[in-house]
Design brief:
signal, globular, Porin_dom_sf, transport, 4 helices, 6% helix, mainly beta, OprD family outer membrane porin, porin activity
Length: 441
């Protein structure tokens, strides 16, 4: 969908410059007072992001390290005739540091072949630029977007954010009536969270996938929420998901998630070495969140079935290369605990030392069986989050996380055995984020 010229034009129209202050028979004043411009906002944000991993799972010890400074300028118009508007968001990033294998951290642009630290660069892009529509009829509300946009947990399609979010080019829209929402999306291209390049969706072998399509039905009430989603990456993977949330008492929320992915022709045609599973993959999860005044704790259990002949299969979160898939199970952590036959237990607990400062622990432990081995892996991370509530720093967020983990020597996801036994490995990860944003108008 070629919208670059349109996007540039509407962004220029949205800029508040002195040109609009010139009164020409009241025309420009009337434009200024039109909700399309008078209701518009612009937000400037800065994000410093450092992400680190030391691991030895597949090779001798490797360090994956990336550090960058990002900026985002987010312009959102009002609506002309309470019907049509436009948004545009610029993202920029500057490299501050990198090691070899930096690209696995998703922070900096990899401008070259391989994963050498000399390839690490910043980037600049208009990651979002779209036309938006809304319409209301009685109690029903319609909205839609066309262009480059963020799709967060939109059916089976989602986004991920580092110094910028993953964005998609296409059409999305929905209808809401009371607690019921129907919505869908059709997208043809993407921009990664750490790249300015327009990319085509691909299979694991690099073959072109024409599009991703997804739809969902959501029901929300005070006591119970439900979400059913369906989607396909054209002729590659088909996915169903079903989420529920039950709030039996005010402080307790119980959630369930079921994911089912079916292989289509293009997936089945790939060599076995490129497939995550053979024909079908499932993931089931349940969690419980208790929230008190100063502390909260969330426990989760997950189980995966992803059969693969002669190897350990894996449930893929994403519907293709260059896309992100909706996945909210606690099995998604620093490591992804979604191997065939793997059972994972997870917890994240947080305590507020003050209204602005929280500390916590997050941990996972998992096990699956392979050739008479009970293969175990896990991690534990300490974190802190500071969100000052008083001026001038009330829009500041500081996040720090650090912790060790353990895994196993592997080829793909399959354990490498020595004398019939798997070999334990160790990991160390850390993350630091400092973000500040303020509204320009």
């Amino acid at each position: 969908m070629k919208i670059n010229t349109i996007a540039a034009a509407i962004l220029l129209l949205g800029c508040h410059t002195s040109v609009w202050a010139i009164d020409n028979d009241g025309l420009n004043n009337s434009l200024l007072t039109n909700p399309l411009f008078s209701d518009s906002t612009m937000t400037l944000s800065f994000k410093n992001y450092w992400k680190y991993l030391k691991e030895e799972n597949a090779n001798p010890k490797h360090v994956h390290n990336a550090w960058g400074q990002g900026v985002a300028v987010d312009y959102q118009s009002g609506y002309f005739a309470d019907f049509i508007g436009f948004d545009a968001v610029y993202y920029g990033a500057v490299k501050l540091g990198a090691s070899d294998y930096f690209n696995s951290r998703g922070v900096l642009y990899n401008n070259g072949d391989g994963n050498k630290k000399s390839n690490a660069e910043g980037f600049s892009k208009f990651g979002q630029r779209n036309i938006k529509l809304k319409y209301s009829l009685a109690d029903a509300h319609f909205d839609a977007r066309w262009g480059w946009q963020v799709l967060k947990n939109y059916g089976v399609i989602s986004t991920s954010t580092r110094l910028s979010p993953t964005t998609y080019s296409g059409i999305s829209g929905g209808v809401n009536y009371g607690g019921l929402t129907l919505r869908g999306a059709y997208v043809e291209n993407s921009m990664d969270r750490n790249s300015p390049d327009k990319k085509q969706f691909q299979t694991n072998t690099g073959a072109k996938i024409d599009h991703l399509a997804s739809g969902e039905v959501l029901w929300k009430s005070d006591l119970f929420d439900a979400q059913y989603g369906y989607g396909e990456s054209a002729n590659y993977l088909r996915r169903h998901l079903l989420f529920t949330k039950l709030r039996p008492v005010e402080r307790l929320t119980i959630g369930t998630q079921t994911y089912a992915t079916h292989a289509l022709d293009e997936y089945l045609a790939m060599p076995a070495s490129k497939r995550d599973f053979d024909n079908n993959a499932w993931h089931f999860a349940i969690d419980a969140l208790w929230q008190a005044d100063r502390w909260s704790s969330k426990f989760g259990v997950g189980y995966t079935s992803a059969k693969k002949e002669n190897e350990i299969g894996f449930y893929p979160r994403h519907m293709s290369k260059n896309s992100r898939g909706t996945f909210i199970s606690m099995a998604y952590a620093g490591d992804d605990y979604m191997r065939d036959g793997e059972l994972v237990l997870a917890n994240i607990s947080e305590y507020k030392l003050t209204p602005d400062l929280a500390v916590g622990l997050a941990g996972n432990i998992a096990q699956f069986n392979y050739k008479d081995n009970h293969v175990r892996s896990g991690e534990i991370n300490a974190f802190t989050r500071w969100t000052p509530s008083s001026a001038p720093m009330k829009n500041l967020t500081v996040w720090l996380m650090f912790g060790p983990g353990w895994s196993y020597k592997m080829s793909g996801k399959t354990p490498v055995l020595t004398d019939g036994h798997y070999t334990r490995t160790h990991t160390l990860s850390s993350e630091a984020i400092i973000e500040y944003r303020f509204k320009m108008f």
